[in-house]
Write a structure and sequence with these properties.
This protein is mainly α. It has 9 helices and no strands. The longest helix has 28 residues. The chain is elongated.
Length: 197
């Protein structure tokens, strides 16, 4: 029985490592998480009456794009260097999240609560990203123990519900409905007359 279990688990791990389905899952997570971080910068800018930190927004989008590229490279070539490069890019992206939290400080307590709740939700995306990456030595145990805390659709729904909750700050409340995350492209939303978000 134990030998049978070992063979089955080895087969599952081998098949997971060979599959590239995790790359599209990672892309979906980043497609929601990176804009969510940029939205938090926009909320802080609206609350403070300052322009958004466009340099940090560009860095976040660039770092997310690097992760996508490195994930595709790692899926093609599972060598140690590809794994290490991907891990380094994820650490950089996690540092971006910490920087957003530092920059997104506002004096309005209701808006700061909104930012804190959104950041708490977004911070789970790094764990979700590392959980889907197969057979990377540092991530192997995490991938077996941790699953992404949300599906992308659950993440988007929860994020949007926090995002549009009124704060009493007119500038923030006017800006947030336009910052909603969408699960589908503009084309799909137009074709379905807004039924699919």
């Amino acid at each position: 029985m134990k030998k049978c279990l070992v063979v089955v688990l080895s087969l599952v791990m081998f098949c997971t490592a060979c599959s590239t389905a995790w790359v599209s899952t990672l892309d979906s997570i980043l497609a929601a998480a990176a804009p969510a971080l940029v939205n938090i910068l926009e909320i802080a800018a609206a609350a403070n009456g300052h322009p958004m930190n466009s340099n940090l927004a560009t860095k976040i989008n660039g770092d997310a794009a690097v992760i996508k590229t490195l994930a595709a490279d790692f899926a093609k070539d599972g060598s140690g260097n590809a794994c290490q490069n991907l891990q380094a890019a994820i650490v950089t992206y996690a540092a971006d999240q910490a920087l957003v939290l530092q920059v997104a400080q506002v004096t309005d307590p209701n808006t700061q609560t909104k930012i804190t709740l959104l950041m708490a939700l977004v911070s789970g995306t790094v764990q979700a990203i590392t959980a889907v990456i197969p057979s990377c030595p540092a991530n192997a145990q995490a991938a077996l123990k941790a699953l992404p805390p949300y599906s992308v659709s659950s993440f988007t729904d929860h994020y949007n519900s926090i995002l549009v909750a009124p704060t009493g700050n007119a500038a923030v409340d006017a800006a947030t409905p336009g910052l909603k995350l969408h699960r589908h492209s503009k084309f799909v939303r137009a074709v379905t007359f807004g039924r699919l978000q």
